[in-house]
Structure formats: structure tokens, C-alpha cells
Amino acid sequence: GEDVEQSLFLSVREGDSSVINCTYTDSSSTYLYWYKQEPGAGLQLLTYIFSNMDMKQDQRLTVLLNKKDKHLSLRIADTQTGDSAIYFCAEKTQAGTALIFGKGTTLSVSS
Amino acid sequence: NAGVTQTPKFQVLKTGQSMTLQCAQDMNHNSMYWYRQDPGMGLRLIYYSASEGTTDKGEVPNGYNVSRLNKREFSLRLESAAPSQTSVYFCASLMNTEAFFGQGTRLTVV
């Protein structure tokens, strides 16, 4: 079955790097996503990676994909207080027509 | 270009009342979705519509119905609201790689 797992909380200091991890079970996943949700707001697409890629970098964000271990990570360099939010990992499988989400990781950034 | 628009933003219902959550997208996307978000549960798929005229159940469809009125609009109906349906509801549309979300409807059933 389809399942996406994330750790629930991460706390870092401003200026440090944050690494949020995610595991998924469906090896037929075609795209994997990271979404950000600020308090009281909807979900904002941060980045996504196609399943045949190992890495994708976009400014302060680096996504690493280990397809063998079904492990996805999001690294945020030079984390700022404005990065405090809930981060959701999601997968889109080849068979499915919807995104399957993890429960979200709450990132807390202290100054 | 408004993206995905949901109405209303907030709603309080009494147990047993009915209501329809509206969603519209202006990006000409084929697929549309309704999710609910509960603390510690992430987003769970209620119903989806892969294309105009088709709808399918997701993970938690009980107590809900949907209508894909046309390509733009996908509504979610609660026929007889229950306190367990207190949640934040998100509509989304998807084309190829990207999914776009509305701002959510915060529903409280008392």
C-alpha cells in the first residue's frame, strides 16, 4: 500500500541547516514533492523531484532522493525564522491519480 | 489568475445540518481533489475527480458527496454534518507534475 512517513518535529537555530526526512513505500512513485504550510494558510509547493533524479537544488533548498531506500530529504541552508512552518512530503505514484501526503514535520527555528 | 478558490473560508454548522463547499480553478486542470487536514493526521484524500464527469472515492469518503460540475468546479457536500467532520478542508487541482491548493475552509460542527 501507499504510505509516506515523516518525523513530526524538528528544532534548529537560525543560520543552521535543517534536514527534513521522509520515507515512502511505493516504488512506482513518479514524482515526490515538498510542500510548506504556514499557520492558517494553504499548502505552498516548494519543490519536486522526478523519480529518476538523485538530487535537485533550488537556491537554499536541496532535495536528495535515494530510490533504493525510498528515502527523500529536504535540506534548507541558512535556516531563517520565516522558514518556521509545517513541511509535507508527498508522492504521486504511477498508478494513482492523487498525491499521498505524510503527516508533516513541524520545523521550529529559534533566533 | 486566481489559481484555486475555495468558499467559504470559515463555517460553523450544527450537527445534522448540510452544506456544500465550493471549489473552482482557472488553470484548465483535469484533476481536482478534496482533502481534509486534522492535527497529527496530515492530509487525507476524501474524493477526487480525474477528469470532468468522473469522481472516485479516496481514503476517507464516508459522510461526503462530490460533484464535478464542469472542468472548473468541484464541490464537496456534507449531507448531515457530524462533529467528526470538524476539520480544515482543502481543494486542489493537478496537471502533470504540479498540484495547487486553495486556502482552505475551516469547518466546525457543534
How is this structure best described in words?
- The complex is a heterodimer of chains A (111) and B (110).
- Chain A is mainly beta.
- Chain A contains no helices and 11 strands.
- Chain A has strands spanning 4-6, 9-13, 18-24, 29-37, 43-50, 55-58, 61-66, 71-76, 85-93, 99-101, 105-110.
- In chain A, the strands form 2 sheets. In chain A, strands 2, 4, 5, 9, 10 and 11 form a 6-stranded mixed β-sheet that branches. In chain A, strands 1-3-8-7-6 form a 5-stranded antiparallel β-sheet, with no helix packed on it.
- In chain A, strand 6 (55-58) and strand 7 form a beta hairpin.
- The model of chain A has no long low-confidence stretch (mean pLDDT 91).
- Chain B is an all-beta fold and 110 residues long.
- In chain B, 0% of the residues lie in helices and 55% in strands.
- In chain B, the strands form 2 sheets. In chain B, strands 2, 4, 5, 6, 9, 10 and 11 form a 7-stranded mixed β-sheet that branches.
- In chain B, a hairpin with a 3-residue loop joins strand 4 (31-38) and strand 5 (42-49).
- The termini of chain B are far apart.
- The relative contact order of chain B is 0.33.
- The chains are: A mainly beta (111), B mainly beta (110).
SSE layout and pairings?
The complex is a heterodimer of chains A (111) and B (110).
Chain A: E1 4-6, E2 9-13, E3 18-24, E4 29-37, E5 43-50, E6 55-58, E7 61-66, E8 71-76, E9 85-93, E10 99-101, E11 105-110
Parallel strand pairs in A: 2-11
Antiparallel strand pairs in A: 1-3, 3-8, 4-5, 4-9, 6-7, 7-8, 9-10, 9-11
Chain B: E1 4-7, E2 10-13, E3 19-25, E4 31-38, E5 42-49, E6 56-57, E7 64-68, E8 74-78, E9 87-95, E10 98-101, E11 105-109
Parallel strand pairs in B: 2-11
Antiparallel strand pairs in B: 1-3, 3-8, 4-5, 4-9, 5-6, 7-8, 9-10, 9-11
